[in-house]
Specification:
The structure holds 2 protein chains of 2 kinds. Chain A has 4 helices and 5 strands, in the order ββαβαβαβα. In chain A, strands 1-2-3-4-5 form a 5-stranded mixed sheet. In chain A, strand 4, helix 3 and strand 5 form a beta-alpha-beta unit. The longest helix of chain A has 18 residues. In chain B, 29% of the residues are buried. Classes of the chains: A alpha/beta, B alpha/beta. Chains A and B meet through helix 3 of A and helix 10 and helix 11 of B.
């Protein structure tokens, strides 16, 4: 099952609703990296609030997505990491260094600074 | 606290048959000793009151034993039990019942807060006195009397071994109760402005508490939609590499939830210790004190705090 990617102004929003297989993650990475290009997005938000586990592969892939989108001119924000997930991640030594994180979608949008480019047209 | 948990200790401090057998092996008590002890028995029995008095006279001379002598009721009880114990010592039967008697005496001592360290000395004096009496009654066979006394001495050391076991168990129990109490100390997470939490940490930070603390912080971050957290560790007695690691983990977890943590209250000593330990705190935002941390956090959140010119403080 692919992960739907919504476009809101200059921001792409991928909301993960289900436990992810590694293939889903790779699919997400490929989808986002191509969409960032043709949608001319300046921000990507990945909402993981529905996830109750985050393994090393998921962490690495998310970090990879952030790096890829950055190269293509878009800032990635990971939002909605649950307390238990966050705790488990640091226990396992997983981190998202260099990736902006936010509490929820609202914070994610604020972090991308949607307002800065509000007058830049509708894409 | 010692009074409070007494009945609980009574059950928990418990020596098994194996413990008793082990202590007997330590002192080398064997069947051949029993007739020797029996030979000493009438001599000791004759002077049991005198010996009891001497034992307590010795204790009375020690500063550390004063708690016992302030409690008249317990002192009488202790004297009665000590007398019973002396009789049992030369009784020739060293089984569970004997240990139970020891246990009761030991609990009584610990109830009044009598220091364990007193006992080797007191016992030594007691054994010396017993030895002197036995040798004085040796008659024409001092070698035999000496052998008899050596057998009694084994019982003395057996007693000390048991006493140490009891007191150690008792102490361990107190420690675990206190640890439980420390764990129950809450670590409040307080919101002082929209999006700003403070987390004052007081006491020692072990793995268990660090986990609890991280847990409550993460939940508070979500519940209060916090963007900044000021974590004040002024009240943390010692910060070593393990504690620092806990702090780093808490900070990393908060960051995953989208909140920035500022650590405040590292004293000069703590900072020096961390640097000499080589702990890398490069990932932490640190500010000298709580006030500085709050000011930084407020600035980052876009607050500007200004005192009004006509505030009552100034006019007063």
């Amino acid at each position: 099952m692919g992960i739907p990617i919504l476009k809101l102004g200059h921001v792409l929003i991928a909301s993960i609703q289900d436990a992810l297989t590694d293939n889903d993650l790779i699919q997400l990475r490929d989808d986002l990296s191509s969409q960032v290009g043709w949608s001319r997005a300046t921000g990507v938000i990945i909402d993981v609030s529905a996830l109750d586990v985050m393994d090393s592969f998921a962490t690495r892939t998310l970090r990879g997505i952030a790096d890829i989108t950055k190269l293509r001119g878009a800032k990635t924000v990971i939002v909605g990491i649950q307390p238990d997930v966050a705790f488990a991640m640091i226990q396992l030594g997983l981190d998202l260094d260099g990736v902006t994180t936010g509490l929820d979608l609202d914070e994610g949008l604020a972090a991308i600074g949607r307002g800065d480019r509000g007058d830049a047209g509708h894409g | 606290m010692a009074d409070l948990d007494f009945s609980a200790h009574r059950q928990a401090v418990h020596l098994t048959d194996e413990d008793i057998a082990r202590h007997k092996r330590f002192v080398g008590l064997e069947a051949a000793d029993l007739p020797r002890i029996a030979a000493v028995r009438p001599i000791v029995m004759e002077r049991v009151d005198e010996l009891t008095t001497m034992f307590f006279d010795f204790l009375r001379g020690l500063d550390v034993a004063t708690p016992l002598f302030r409690r008249g009721d317990l002192l009488d009880e202790a004297k009665r039990m000590k007398r019973e114990h002396l009789i049992a010592m030369v009784g020739g039967v060293y089984d569970r019942a004997y240990v139970e008697l020891q246990l009761e005496l030991g609990l009584l001592y610990s109830k009044v807060g009598l220091d364990t360290r007193v006992f080797p000395g007191a016992f030594y004096h007691l054994m010396n006195t017993v030895g002197a009496i036995v040798m004085a009654n040796a008659g024409d066979d001092p070698q035999k009397a000496f052998q008899n006394f050596m057998a009694v001495k084994k019982i003395g050391f057996l007693d000390i071994g048991l006493m140490i076991d009891i007191m150690a168990a008792e102490r361990e129990q107190t420690i675990s109760i206190q640890q439980e109490a420390i764990r129950e100390l809450s670590t409040p997470v307080l919101q002082i402005r929209d999006g700003l939490l403070i987390l004052p940490i007081i006491g020692t930070l072990d793995s268990f508490r660090a986990k609890q603390l991280t847990d409550s912080l993460l939940r508070a971050i979500r519940a209060n939609r916090a963007k900044m957290v000021v974590m004040d560790i002024t009240g943390v007695a010692a910060v070593d590499s393990r504690v620092a690691n806990h702090l780093i983990q808490t900070v990393a977890a908060s960051r995953l939830m989208g909140a920035t943590v500022i650590v405040t209250g590292l004293s000069g000593d703590v900072a020096q210790a961390l640097v000499s330990l080589g702990v890398d705190l490069g990932t932490l935002n640190t500010v000298g004190d709580l006030q500085g941390g709050l000011e930084l956090a407020e600035r980052r959140l876009g607050y500007r705090i200004a005192r009004q010119a006509d505030s009552s403080l100034e006019t007063a």
